[in-house]
Structure prediction request, 233 residues.
Amino acid sequence: MKKNILLLLCMFFLLASCKKKTETVDLKTDYFPLKVGAWIIYNVDSTYYDNFLLTHYTHHFQLKELVASSFTDGSGDLAYSLERYERDSDTLPFVIKNVWTEKVINNRAEKVEENQRFIKLVFPPQFSTTWKGNAFIKPDLTSIYTKFLGNWDYEYTAIDAPNSFGSNSFNSTATIVADNEIVPGLQQTNFTETYARGVGLIYYHHKYLEKQPTDANWISGFDVSATIESYGY
Prediction:
């Protein structure tokens, strides 16, 4: 009898242990890793269109993002400061441009860019998931940087996919596409970002262009793409 009871107890604990293991879900938050000292250097190509002067400006440069420190933000959450540096060529020193912040909370990744809070990712990544990535942003129609940021839907178009950018190859990447309503012939909007597990953002393409139907030369907006060059910890 004692042997039978002992056997039943062993089977119970074994089944309970297996159940706990099967219930464990990998949220894959390492698509947005936050570690002090981690850095990424990007090669950036940008074009800005001036509708007043009817011209455009191109700028090719390198951008470095460094997770500089952690802190407790105004909501009481653990957050990280992201120092951003620029240089016009790899022979010049980096010069600090600005500081953004980022955090992972409630199964989502948030980044504050120029005082605008974006929900960049939601976890775990699933093709069936969409979210309002600009939910915290109130568009300002007088600002080229926020007037187009409305009620956008974000969605995953690739998950855990191998990918290569430049000389860097990654086993698992996830791509996000965020888009607003487009007026054919008058507006072009394309926001795409790709993340790699254990690394973070490795590529992005942000484009917003406006045209006037009465003036073929009138274009306003920007077209910016960045590709990872190197990274480290």
